[in-house]
Write a structure and sequence with these properties.
single chain, 482 residues, mainly alpha, 85% helix
Length: 482
């Protein structure tokens, strides 16, 4: 069993590994997405958004929460628990793929997909099956907080996917580029993770073995199912309302708005859940860890979102063929605000789940799911793609409920940990807007703006909260060196 000190050391090292290597991944993904949004039409981009949402929705039904329960389990894992989890998952995956294939023609007709779009759906289903084979090796690494190894398959997948898709899109293959890239990524990911974790898959069913896991697993997965209804089903509904071109613009705005959030949040959340789970009986340590993570996230995400708001007009003006995304700029800006709210609320939700408060999470997800499936279609019909972003912002504001629930578990001080970054980011925004009218909408102007905005933020944060910032950095470095 790991001690609290060892847990902290591994957590910090995992964050360092994930954020540093994820930086590389995000650069590759950024360049890949940028190229695709240049080479592909808005309709082609929309086809990928729709088909990906369908398969991602299936992914949430491919597990009854047993993988999450394996990670969250307090004691040691048993071999029969692991093998039974794998067996149940694969049976569910094959069942879901069969259902998707049966209704594939209906899906094609409903969204007006051509034959190539249908083949893309088929390729995503194959990749879905291959991805399921990675679950147990990933769980085994997460249990040990060995995220520096988990990132290796992701690096390989990212390079292969972006290399194939950009090359083929540049040569004019359109949607076919996605088909080849999706399959290439799936193959590389499975091979790489099994090299790192030579676990031997074995079919074995034992209800007794997984019975203890189901108490957490079923509510955990119910939460995931509700999440998919909130996020992916709403996309499928919007696809019919907005059309493929509208979905292309919406997908572009949401993807770019969440880019910095995904970089910082995904890496830290992967570490946070197993970390918080190990500290369930040490609430004082859990509280301090939560506050460290929130401070870390706010300090990095808030200025990044403001920077994205300031930079996007330059990107649209500078890059050839990029003016086609101009109609999505207002939607993009609204999604940035939602991303700022999500940066904090997602962490709080993750904390509650790790503490075993799964019923509270389910209650929140029911509320958010009903709100999303009600508000999004209404506002989309009235205001188009902008309406969707407005709906996202309205629902994001209700995350105050999550904070109040966390306060029932630990006395976390949220404002102290997010206000310095928020105020410094607003100073950065105002100061940069004042000089922006004097800068040309060019590469040189964008460079000057980035340097100026970064300096303003760093100086502001040091003046407002320099002492705590230094303390947080020292804590981080001490663990990293240990």
């Amino acid at each position: 069993m790991l001690t609290v000190s060892q847990i902290g050391q591994r957590a910090i090292k995992s964050v360092i590994a994930l954020t540093s290597r994820t930086f590389f991944l995000n650069v590759v993904n950024f360049l890949g997405t940028l190229a695709l949004t240049i080479f592909l039409t808005r309709r082609e981009f929309g086809v990928f958004v729709i088909t990906s949402a369908i398969v991602e929705m299936l992914n949430y039904f491919s597990d009854i929460g047993l993988a999450g329960a394996l990670i969250q389990k307090k004691g040691r894992l048993k071999k029969k628990e692991i093998e039974a989890t794998f067996t149940i998952q694969e049976l569910l995956v094959l069942l879901l793929i069969g259902v998707a294939l049966i209704f594939s023609k209906v899906i094609q007709k409903f969204y007006g997909l051509d034959q190539t779009g249908l083949y893309l759906l088929y390729s995503l289903l194959i990749a879905f099956f291959m991805s399921s084979l990675k679950t147990i090796p990933s769980v085994l690494l997460e249990r040990r907080l060995r995220f520096e190894k988990i990132i290796i398959p992701q690096i390989a997948e990212t390079i292969v996917f972006n290399g194939l898709i950009v090359s083929l899109a540049w040569m004019g293959f359109g949607i076919k580029s996605y088909i080849v890239a999706v399959l290439g990524r799936a193959i590389v990911g499975v091979v790489t993770i099994y090299i790192l974790v030579p676990w031997r898959p074995r079919i074995r069913f034992s209800l007794k073995a997984v019975k203890s896991l189901l108490g957490f697993g079923i509510p955990y997965q119910l939460n995931s199912v509700l999440a998919v209804f909130k996020d992916k089903v709403s996309l499928l509904v919007l696809g019919k309302i907005l059309g493929l071109e509208g979905m292309g613009i919406l997908g572009w705005a949401e993807k770019w708005a969440n880019l910095t959030l995904r970089y910082f949040l995904d890496a830290t959340l992967k570490v946070a859940f197993p970390l918080f789970s190990r500290l369930q009986h040490k609430l004082d340590k859990a509280q301090k860890s939560l506050e460290h993570f929130i401070y870390f996230i706010a300090t990095l995400v808030f200025p990044s979102l403001v920077g994205a708001y300031l930079l996007m007009p330059y990107i649209i003006n500078i890059i050839p063929k990029y003016t086609k995304w101009q109609p999505g700029l207002t939607t993009f800006n609204l999604f940035l605000i939602s991303a700022g709210l999500a940066a904090v609320s997602t962490f709080l939700t993750n904390f509650l789940m790790a503490m075993g408060k799964i019923k509270w999470i389910i209650g929140l997800m029911v509320f958010w799911t009903i709100s999303t499936l009600t508000i999004y279609p209404i506002l989309a019909n009235k205001f188009g793609i902008v309406g969707v972003a407005i709906g996202s912002l309205i629902i994001g504001l209700t995350s105050i409920i999550t904070y109040l629930l966390v306060k029932k578990v630990v006395k976390v001080n949220l404002l102290v940990n997010i206000l310095p970054a928020f105020v410094s980011s607003m100073i950065m925004l105002v100061a940069t807007k004042l000089i922006q009218s004097y800068l040309p909408l060019s590469l040189k102007g964008a460079g000057i703006m980035i340097v100026f905005a970064s300096l303003v933020y760093i100086i502001s944060l040091m003046l407002i909260n320099g002492k705590k910032l230094k303390q947080q950095i020292n804590i981080f470095l001490n663990y990293a060196k240990a």
